Amino acid sequence: GQLQWNYAEGLVTINAPRAQGAVGFLKKADAIRLADVTVESHNAYDSVLVVAMDDKPLTTSEKVLVQVGTTARPSGWRQRDAGDGTFEILEHGHAPWLLEDIDATVTVANPRLSQAVVLDGNGYARQTLKLQPSKGAVQVKLPRDAKYVVLQ
What we know:
The protein is 0% helix and 54% strand. By secondary structure, the protein is mostly beta strands. The chain has an eight-stranded antiparallel beta sheet, with no helix packed on it.
């Protein structure tokens, strides 16, 4: 029961002690409430995965990785709505690929965590953010271009 597929909503969730998150049409789903993590996304389609990096449950972990993926398309990509829930590709585009900005907030039920370290694409620290306390949990509004954030 830790992995749930909801085909009707286009949503997959993982809800295990050391890894929780969601993939799919998250904006339509409103807030995704899992055992220890809540994901609120305004992206039409994305993935948010929260994983303990020290083999402890998320509620006691001292280092947690948040990985985010959004829609990626090549520059020049063009599509047209086909009117039946599908679309027709008009132009396949070319390099470079463009990633949709992230518009998501993650809450983790672990008040021991105090900061978020935003990593660049190579895994190097680029920015540090304070986590917001939230009723026995911490919350972070993910930066629009952050694909990897370490909570510690």
